[in-house]
Amino acid sequence: MTTDLVDLPPRFGMDRPAFDKLEGRRPGELRAATSVILARDGAEGLEVFLLQRADGMAFAAGMSVFPGGGLDDADRTALADGLVDAGAAARAATSWGTTEDEAAALLACAVRETYEETGVLLADAAVPPPGTRERLAAREVGLRDVVGHLAADRLRPWARWLTPEPMPKRYDTAFFVAAVPEGQEPDGATSEAVGAGWCAPARALREWDDGDRALMPPTWAVLTELAAAPDVATLLASATGRRPLPVTPSLRPGGERVGIAVPAFAIGAAR
């Protein structure tokens, strides 16, 4: 696999004055996070569920994103609490190159954030009582109070992106793919979003090209790869056993603009 860098479209760059303000600053702390690519088969092929973040958000304001968010302390006890069984934790640890405890925490975070932001519950459980989702988001209850066991094998590893060092807010984000369970439908009813819906990856990219949709580099790169999958079965098969390599975009100062480059494998240019 080549590690050659590929320049992303110039729109992803930043003005030189904005970059200069970052130089010399202490980089933000790297926080573990997850993002879940919910997928279904639509009339024209594979579709994914995208949220449009509210303009007032401190991070990724106005962007179209997959559901997700940062790990919290409760996520880190998922293995000890029995939310994730040892076998699933071991498989996830191999995929992500981390410990079983950390891998179980990623799975718990992915399930929790997906439920909070979309109402889809990736777990072996009946639909919780009304108001449970809101109580979980408010931290009045924990995920262990909502479900007894996570359906961890529904989550397949896809990609891992790290925010570059100069940025004040930095995340080490594990991207999973998951088919929407039968009988469930995501709604995007979260205070963090002002819109949500299903969209074919290729259409989302065309809307970005036309200036009708805002995307961050990781979302754009993931959508670029997803556009090659004709259906959910193919997507899940390609994700099975996948071991995502970490992608940290490189900032390339030059003239009035600072460009961004990533390894070729990050956008499926070489696999």
TrEMBL record:
Gene3D superfamilies: Nucleoside Triphosphate Pyrophosphohydrolase. Keywords: Hydrolase, Magnesium, Manganese, Metal-binding. Residues 29-221 form the Nudix hydrolase domain. It holds the Pfam family NUDIX. Its cofactor is Mg(2+); Mn(2+). Coiled coil: none annotated. It comes from the Bacteria. PROSITE patterns: NUDIX (PS51462). This is NUDIX domain-containing protein.
